[in-house]
Design a protein that fits this description.
The protein has about 210 residues and is of the alpha/beta class. The chain contains ten helices and five strands. Bound molecules: adenosine-5'-diphosphate.
Amino acid sequence: MRLVMLGPPGAGKGTQAARLAERLGVPQLSTGDILRAAAAKGSPVSLAARDLMARGELVGDDIVVNCVLECIAEPGAASGFILDGFPRTLRQARALDEALEKAHLGLDAVLELKVDESVLLDRIIYRAREAKAAGLPVRADDNPEALKVRLESYRTQTQPLADYYRTAGLLRTINGLRPVDEVTSSLVAELRLHRKPESEQTSLSRAEFE
Ligand code: ADP
């Protein structure tokens, strides 16, 4: 299974991607996590990325695309992956398509989590509070100012990807406002519903949902 999670900041992409990854036995590739880990190590490129991320702005396409293409070429991603936070621009989506095409592969589905913008700020404030209470680091971009910028880049640069993937017949839209378990069940149901015919499945993909 090769999947992409789409949705605004705070929609629950990371939570759901982790659950699906475990269920399907494929890695979850979160560009936010990968970039934060790189920034923590402190290379010059990643330090520039860290400032952009803290402000809520997007990191340059080339950096992110290179990073994702490297990850999906790893042996661990040979049977599939769930991309969470990528692609975020049309250029990124096209680069992913090209790389998969070259490898004679394709995406199975793009799962879009639909959530009212009015709940996003509450969710992000809650996440920051929980992290603090647990003694974990609070993300530099989990605050109202950075959220505004993140939402703006989502609206202008990422939202158009829904049309891109709808045209390709890959988009599945799920209501992300319900409790976490219910959202997971809906995602799994969507994937089952649109499963490839038995003849096109590998034994691994047949086993995934048993
Ligand atoms: P969220 O989706 O909750 O906003 P992420 O953890 O996915 O958070 O991403 C955090 C930040 O990392 C983004 O605001 C952006 O600065 C950077 N980032 C992550 N993925 C990408 C991407 N595909 N392209 C550009 N920047 C990215």
